[in-house]
Amino acid sequence: MTTIWLARHAETATPYLVHGAESDIGLGEHGRLQAAAIAPWFRERGPDVVVSSRMVRAVDTAAPIAALCGVPHEIEPEFHERKVGRFSQMTGEEVDVVWKETVRRWESGEIGYSYQGMESFSQITNRVLPVFQRVADRHTGKRVAIIVHGVVCKVLLLNILKDYGPSDWTRLGKAMNLSVSELVQEGELWRANALLAVPEPVTLVNANRTEKGGKRPEA
What we know:
Layout: E1 3-8, H1 29-45, E2 49-52, H2 56-69, E3 73-75, H3 93-107, H4 121-138, E4 143-148, H5 150-160, H6 169-172, E5 180-186, E6 189-197, H7 200-207
Parallel strand pairs: 1-4, 2-3, 2-4
Antiparallel strand pairs: 1-5, 5-6
């Protein structure tokens, strides 16, 4: 039976800004603590391989996991975050309004909708779903940790889980930093044993946060 842990990367150096595919930012101090905390959690679960996008924030989250578990770290470039155009490294009311409208239209069935310069739900699906399927096929019967990005996680989940679709974007919940979905393959679809759950070691790191945090946009 193939088991996949699909997780969002740890917190970036500027979590209060939007970071799409156009911004290859690394982890901040708090994100590095999160990444260090999640690695032993994964080791207890015994993944055979770790896969990530090649974006720095994903690689710097995945690499410590692969190293501690003593398993290969594979890079899938097309797992990169959603393209956000001119909103890259921005925050503020306009960003919030555009994102709220995007979610509203996706949930209403307009999955081809995107604000200028951004990727639509359909475009993200067409980019990342074949990669996910390729990784699953390549590692059939194995245990795989996939470290990617918030919007990528949600688009994948809404495509592969029974009884979910684009209209369930809000119902699915938020993809917090290092939230993990445990997926088990059942035929052509997948069953979720856990959905977007932040493991206890990361929750403890978050609770002990010392530096002041800014607004952290989540998918």
